[in-house]
Every structure is written in C-alpha cells, then in structure tokens.
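> call design_seq(struct)
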C-alpha cells in the first residue's frame, strides 16, 4: 500500500468518531526515525504503540506522509514540540 488520504476538519464534531468495538485505544510509546528506511533510501518512522493489555503494535510510516500531516497542521498554526518530553501515557479509568 503506497497511498494515504488526509482529511482536514475545523471542528472535532466534523471528524469521525472512533469507538469500540471497531477501534481500540492505543498509546504512542516510542518513535524511531530510520534515515534509510524505505527501499528507495528515504526516511521512515517506526511508531510503537501499546494498548491497555500491554500488547505492542507498530506502524511504519514514510517520513513524507508525516511531512504532509505536519504541513497541514503548520498551515493553520505553528506548534512547538520538544524532544524527550513528548508523552501520551494512557489515562486508565
């Protein structure tokens, strides 16, 4: 699969709702940039997620897709992100 769609919404109510059982919540635990991660020698990013049960999942994403997403965000408003302080720890009920 070598394509991705990008949808941009102004308000949360416009976007799709993700809920069980179709979607299970997972939490980003780690990201690794692989500079020569594709067959063509382009950068890729491995995103490691974990669910509530501790099961780990990985998404291998082309850096060009992330650039496209970031460009859409930056067109709206600049964001500041700093290194090791990024976290998406689960909030357990």
């Amino acid at each position: 699969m070598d394509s991705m769609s990008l949808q941009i919404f102004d308000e949360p109510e416009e976007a799709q709702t993700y809920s069980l059982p179709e979607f299970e919540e997972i939490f980003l635990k780690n990201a690794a940039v692989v500079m020569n991660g594709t067959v063509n020698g382009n950068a890729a990013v491995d995103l490691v997620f974990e669910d509530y049960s501790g099961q780990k999942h990985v998404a291998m994403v082309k850096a060009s897709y992330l650039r496209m997403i970031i460009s859409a965000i930056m067109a709206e408003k600049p964001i500041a992100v700093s290194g090791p302080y990024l976290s998406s720890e689960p909030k357990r009920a």
